[in-house]
């Protein structure tokens, strides 16, 4: 049976908590390299600190997807995982930026920071994945693009807030410099306020969204997932079996994802160093100039998110979804390549707006292609958890190779943006192999 159409506000409520989750993710993305560089990490080692977030994602999201496929409580199917993940995220957000504030030696502080980062990304992934599953569970094919577009908008809005927090708190007068090895108060308070907003947003979604009961779910999604929920028959679909039976679109979109997420991993890892070198002409992590550059990276990431919001409005105007995807990635690649050549902090807005075009497509389009291709396969949660591997694996590979590639390009962090640009262009070329069936943007 066709799933019913949902009103705009019901689609909005399904994803509203994503706004808060994305604030946490944005704070992590913009500040992890800054935090560990402040603690004393060498630039050639920075990428290794980024292995933990995607590694935890590739472990956690399939588990959350599989377990939630088999879960039913009076609070819902996906929402319990969402709420627990958000609560854990709040706790760890209050600990991570204080890694240098407890009087520990440099090595001990870094280990503390790594452990906190591991738990932060574990809990963010646990909170993030259910939002994608809720759309897959409750939204019909015709509205799915609209639902993911709303999710993309909320994601970018949350990103803008999270990215801008350190700059905003510095503007308010909160200290932006600290003793050697200590994270500035402007960053610490950004994490505190972000944690408060996160839990409020997640509470809103948990109170406003009522998931279907097993009978309703069976009526709209077929018997395969319903049997999984009620566990009325043996579940023979382990992850390897699911991957073996995955539609070709799953793998083809995954190929594009590989190059796309590798590119953004290098942006997150080397943005603070690149802007500090290119615009502020410094590599001294203890200097005020370096911390100012770190604040400005948050503003540039916010500009990227604004560009993404604007481009998300343009995307549905394309008649061909594959063309929209490819053009977006090429524009993002051009933006990456421009960054190391722009020495004015305000002119940096131009390349980051272009990067936002690529980001908009990466947020919405892969899940539209894949969830449409998965109709009738069952085990939507498990498949989307496994699909997260196409986000996590490229980041892990990129992080492992980051120090080597940085040395190969002259140990200039800005050159890593050119590497990222090349990756996005390759990803755009790979779009041509995707099967576009049922994935139109104008539905």
Layout: helices, strands, pairs:
Blueprint: H1 8-15, H2 17-39, H3 46-49, H4 52-69, H5 79-93, H6 106-138, H7 141-172, H8 185-208, H9 214-221, H10 223-230, H11 239-245, H12 248-278, H13 288-314, H14 321-338, H15 349-373, H16 380-387, H17 389-408, H18 415-430
Helix pairs in contact: 2-6, 2-7, 2-8, 2-12, 2-13, 4-6, 4-16, 4-17, 5-6, 5-8, 6-7, 6-16, 7-8, 7-13, 7-15, 9-10, 12-13, 12-15, 12-17, 12-18, 13-15, 14-15, 14-18
Q: Could you walk me through the main structural features you see in this protein, from its secondary elements to its overall organization?
A:
The chain is mostly helical and 443 residues long. 73% of the residues lie in helices and 0% in strands. The protein is built from 18 helices and no strands. Helix 2 crosses helix 7 and helix 4 (52-69) packs parallel to helix 6. It is globular. The two termini are 18 Å apart.
Given as residue ranges, the uncertain stretches (5+ residues, pLDDT < 50) are: 224-236, 438-443
Radius of gyration (CA) equals 21 Å
Query: How far apart are the first and last residues' alpha carbons, in Å?
Result: 18 Å
Number of helices in the DSSP assignment: 18
Structural class: mainly alpha
Largest sheet: none
Which homologous superfamily in CATH is the superfamily?
Answer: MFS general substrate transporter like domains
CATH domain fold name: Growth Hormone, Chain: A
Strand % is under 5%
- The number of E-state strands comes to 0
Mean pLDDT: 84
What's the number of structural domains? Answer: 1
Instruction: Please bin the fraction of helical residues.
Output: over 70%
